[in-house]
Write a structure and sequence with these properties.
- The protein is α/β, with parallel strands linked by helices and about 325 residues long.
- About 40% of the residues lie in helices and about 20% in strands.
- The protein contains ten helices and 15 strands.
- The strands form three sheets. It has a seven-stranded mixed β-sheet with strand order 12-11-7-10-9-8-15, with helices on one face. A six-stranded parallel β-sheet has the order 3-2-1-4-5-6, with helices on both faces. It has a two-stranded antiparallel sheet with strand order 13-14.
- Strand 4, helix 4 and strand 5 form a beta-alpha-beta unit.
- Helix 7 crosses helix 10.
- It is globular, with a radius of gyration of 20 Å.
- The two termini are about 30 Å apart.
- Bound molecules: nicotinamide-adenine-dinucleotide and (2R,3S,4s,5R,6S)-2,3,4,5,6-pentahydroxycyclohexanone.
- The site of nicotinamide-adenine-dinucleotide has 25 residues, from helix 1.
């Protein structure tokens, strides 16, 4: 059994704890930590895990083989560095870091170790719908992939969510998806001025539109609408030279009945990506146990943060912003 410690037992940390305990084979949760000690104690008690009083105690606990980091994004880089120092594999929720400089420090530390210990929680790569899209691109079904149109809508955002967070917290998923689907880096980002919803908090730009240019000439446009009111709605269509492929929402069927045609919408990411989180966790556990990580890596985390940073710069300046990535260390080639 892989013995896992979890840092941050909020929304997704608690989901990961419960999912590993209920639906993932070969792993158990043995330790947790959250600055909200009552919350950590309650979540730990559900699965028989000890609640530590510091994050470092989870990382250094000899009973912990691997760590899940699910605390707020601005804590990730430091925790990732501590895991590397302790030689413990980690599944780090997105983002790997909140600045490209901090992400680069993590990547450099892992590259210096010379072996992969980090996986970043870009769970869409494990969603069956996205996997079908990827297969249709890779096997040539739609010819050469040229463009993608993406939509990422949340019914509402937590208090304090900003225009910048729409890029760093939400669009960061499409950044990873675009790099993964097209197999190319994003080289420039342009945030297009949009008309704010009258329901958006004062000063918040919502919805937003951002255009990405990729190194191979492909273009990806993304709408992020974090206060769309009606539900959680993630879409993606990739246009190729001989056809297109669209993302479908697994498990959501159109119902024809008294109310006409009804297509339920997921309430939030927990519902929409429930199975993707399960598959992601199972794959991570299996990979750690086999000694060879294969999911989204430290470089993916760094590149996503660097692109999100360019999105924020473009949002502020109104200008097209070039993404500057450092050279990719050999570990990630
Ligand atoms: P949350 O606010 O619900 O939970 C965060 C938890 O971390 C809270 O319980 C808080 O008390 C705790 N915390 C704060 N500072 C801490 C520290 N220094 N050390 C340990 N714990 C600390 O937030 P959330 O929605 O669960 O998001 C957590 C992370 O997961 C974020 O990075 C977010 O971007 C990511 N996330 C990813 C997905 C996904 O789809 N992959 C979905 C949601 C959240
Ligand atoms: C949240 O942090 C997530 O990662 C969700 O997947 C995303 O849809 C949401 O917009 C983010 O706030």
């Amino acid at each position: 059994m892989l013995k896992v410690g979890v840092i941050g037992t909020g929304n997704i940390g608690t989901d990961h704890v419960r999912r590993i305990a209920s639906s993932v084979a070969g792993a158990s949760i043995v330790a947790v930590f959250d600055v909200d000690t009552d919350r950590a104690a309650a979540v730990g008690a559900e699965v028989g895990a000890v609640a530590h009083s510091r994050a470092a105690d989870v990382i250094e606990d000899p009973a912990v083989d691997a760590v899940i980091v699910a605390s707020p994004g601005d804590t990730h880089a430091e925790l990732a560095l501590a895991c590397l120092q302790a030689d413990k594999p980690l599944l780090c929720e997105k983002p790997l870091a909140t600045t490209s400089a901090a992400a680069l420090e993590v990547v450099a530390a892992e590259a210096a170790l010379g072996r992969r210990l980090i996986q970043v929680g870009f769970m869409r790569r494990y969603d069956s719908g996205y996997r079908l899209v990827k297969t249709a691109i890779d096997d040539g079904t739609i010819g050469a992939p040229l463009l993608a149109h993406c939509i990422h809508r949340n019914a509402s955002a937590p208090p304090g969510f900003t225009s910048e967070m729409s890029m760093t917290d939400s669009v960061v998923h499409e950044i990873d998806v675009a790099r993964w689907l097209f197999g190319a880096e994003i080289v420039a980002a342009t945030a297009v001025p949009t008309r704010p919803s009258p329901l958006a908090p004062p000063g918040m730009r919502d919805p937003q539109l951002v255009l990405f240019e990729l190194a191979n000439g492909s273009v990806v446009e993304v709408e992020s609408f974090v206060g769309c009111q009606y539900g959680y709605d993630v879409r993606c269509e990739v246009v190729g030279s001989t056809g297109t492929v669209s993302l479908d929402t697994p498990g959501i069927n159109t119902i024809l009945g008294g109310a006409g045609q009804v297509r339920p919408v997921a309430a939030d990411w927990r519902v929409r990506f429930a199975d993707a989180y399960r598959v992601e966790l199972q794959d991570w556990v299996d990979a750690v146990r086999s000694g060879e990580l294969r999911g989204p890596d430290g470089w993916d985390g760094y590149a996503a943060t660097a692109v999100a940073e360019s999105c924020v710069e473009s949002l502020r300046s109104g200008e097209r912003t070039v993404v500057r990535l450092t050279d990719r260390p050999k570990l990630y080639s």
